[in-house]
Amino acid sequence: MMNFFPSTLRFIALLPIATVAMLYSGILFVLYSNATPGISRTAINVLTQRYLCHSTGIKEDLAAQKFIRSGRIKCLSATAMDIIIAAGIALENVTGFTVVSVPIDSNSPMALLPFRFKFFEQALDEELDTIEQIVVLGAGFDTTTFRPSVVQAAGRRNIKIFEVDNPITQQVKKEVVEKSGLNASHITFVPCDFEKTSWLEALSHCQEFKSKARTYFLWEGVMYYLTEKAVRETINTVATEFPAGTSLAFDYFRLDRFARRYLWAMRLYGEPLLSSIDTRESQDFRETLDDFISERSDGKMRITKQGSYQYFNQGDFGGVIKALVA
Ligand SMILES: C[S@@+](CC[C@H](N)C(=O)[O-])C[C@H]1O[C@@H](n2cnc3c(N)ncnc32)[C@H](O)[C@@H]1O
After folding, report:
1. Residue 142, ligand 1, Cβ within 6 A
2. Is the CB–ligand 1 distance for residue 193 below 6 Å?
3. Membrane-crossing residues (predicted)?
4. Ligand 1 atom closest to Cα of 196?
5. Could you give the domains of the chain?
């Protein structure tokens, strides 16, 4: 009760300015992303979620904070985001409902990305003592390769790190990293469009890349933006060109469970959802997942870790996987 009135006053004071900040952020996003054709909007969206996680204490991500505060991603205003987050936290204090600082294990859709971030963080940390290389496919503005545990392991064990992404988004990321003042000397940036060129071919031009080394592939937030052909090639290449102990971590959606309006919205957004792991009748979904991996990996890979999205108790509409080359 004691805290109710100051919180309410704080929320009332922040509401108009947060409304302006939201409008400003929306306009900035549309103007800038249209002015930079080819940049991945969804990659920027994921970065804002990483920043939100950091700002609300859900998950530390100093690199995301530095990326956004660098000012180089011109469609994002750190100040506007800070105001919106402050208003969200004030609203939480008034109502007692979580709005922005949603716990990872809650069933709110706001927890989907934090859950995904946590899964991939753990999936990689489990491998840091054994792998020789990390390849991030479709890296966007991911901050994994700047995480202290990854940087330390890379230094200690001489793990080579490669970020592969669409050339336009990657160029912006390189500028963002430079402006953030972060050290990226442990990362090799490799531009590649997965629909036009083989990523293995692109990587093979890098002096430090070893095609026969035990590798951790992170393919986060990418699979569903690719055609089935590119998805199949990626899984098959990991399975057939890399040694046992190599793993591939990725997320998927069950698009057969999505409303058509959502698929249309993504099309309008410019990044349509193209690939899915769909329900197969008379089959347990775990079997469907196993078959999906097995069929594309010539039976060489098996799932070793898995989680599914269960939000609003609507049932499983996607999830996260780590699959190992046996
Ligand atoms: C939703 S973002 C995810 C970014 C990042 N992995 C993360 O989790 O923050 C999708 C990423 O896939 C990349 N991508 C999509 N289609 C691609 C393609 N055909 N070739 C290369 N990269 C692609 C985009 O450039 C973008 O960085």
Report:
1. yes
2. yes
3. 12-32
4. 19
5. 4-95 (no CATH), 109-325 (3.40.50.150)
Q: Does the structure show a pLDDT above 60 at 45?
A: yes
Tell me the pTM.
0.94
Phi, psi of 9 (to 5 degrees): -60, -40
The reply to whether ligand 1 has any atom less than 6 angstroms from the CB of 138 is yes
Alpha helices in the chain (DSSP H): 4-35, 41-55, 62-69, 78-95, 112-125, 148-157, 167-180, 199-204, 228-241, 260-269, 285-296
DSSP 221: T
Nearest to 220 by CA among 240, 187, 192, 248: 248
pLDDT for 3 equals: 62
Q: Residue 139: CB within 6 Å of ligand 1?
A: yes
For residue range 90-138, what is the model confidence (pLDDT) as tens digits? Answer: 999 888 888 888 888 888 888 999 999 999 999 999 999 999 999 999 9
Angle between helix 62-69 and helix 167-180 axes, rounded to 10 deg? 100
Give me the pLDDT at residue 314, please: 73
Structure tokens at 236: 């098959």
**Ligand 1 mean position, distance from CA 142 (Å):** 10
The alpha carbon of 169 and the centre of ligand 1 are apart by a number of angstroms equal to 8
